[in-house]
């Protein structure tokens, strides 16, 4: 149902406080955009928000984000209630971190994207899932999953020829093939390029 003018004002005021990286006028624009997206959505959630498909299409068109695995994970970080749709509050507060977040906020966000099962660690299996769609396999008749497994094996054997390998060389202290947030944070503070080590989950500077 359409919100009253007073209700919209109260919502904008509240979101301006909670999504502290946006001005009031920016919040108003994002709320209006949200309403437009919901009006276009034909999903079962159209009354409460918009679904995974609309969210992915929006991030793709606005920011050029194309990795389906990453986009699904970004959706999950926005959908804090785990209801299958994004509310206006989740939309604005999520974008505040995605677009204007501090380094600490973005580290927590990126780690949450990569931590597929939410157990506080990035495991070997989660590395595999995040990397599998970004690796071009040669020759063409080789099984793609085998190629990614080879890449993960190289990472865990500390073949430090890229930032990804350096990351594990420095941080996987107990050699168990998984990383805690504390390990991730330490590595990112030393080299910010490691923020998106398992996939592009932030918009580029444009």
Automatic annotation (TrEMBL):
In which domain of life is the source organism classified? Eukaryota
Keyword Repeat attributed: yes
Matching entries from InterPro entries are given as: EF-hand-dom_pair (IPR011992), EF_Hand_1_Ca_BS (IPR018247), EF_hand_dom (IPR002048), Recoverin (IPR028846)
Q: Where is the EF-hand domain?
A: 66-101, 102-137, 159-194
Q: Which keywords does this chain's UniProt record carry?
A: Calcium, Metal-binding, Repeat
User: What protein name does the entry list?
Assistant: EFCB1 protein
> One Pfam family of this protein, by short name?
EF-hand_7
Q: What's a Gene Ontology MF term here?
A: calcium ion binding
The keyword Metal-binding is assigned to this record: yes
